[in-house]
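User: Sequence recovery, please. Input:
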């Protein structure tokens, strides 16, 4: 999917849930609490920042979610 948005987060995080709801069906959600390899990928994307959600849209990385 060309316009796919990847959201790295955790199931218990309310901001992750809000981001997934806001972006809708275009999202691929990755739970970094369940997948340590994906957590490491997220850390590389954020240069070590441990804040979620991390939203990757068209190569642009956004750390945190404040609304769309």
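Assistant: Recovered sequence (68 residues):
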């Amino acid at each position: 999917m060309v316009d796919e948005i990847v959201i790295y987060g955790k199931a218990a995080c309310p901001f992750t849930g809000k981001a997934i709801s806001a972006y809708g069906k275009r999202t691929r959600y990755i739970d970094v609490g369940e997948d340590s390899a994906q957590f490491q990928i997220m850390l590389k994307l954020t240069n070590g920042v441990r804040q979620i959600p991390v939203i990757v849209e068209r190569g642009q990385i956004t750390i945190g979610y404040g609304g769309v």
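The radius of gyration is 11 Å.
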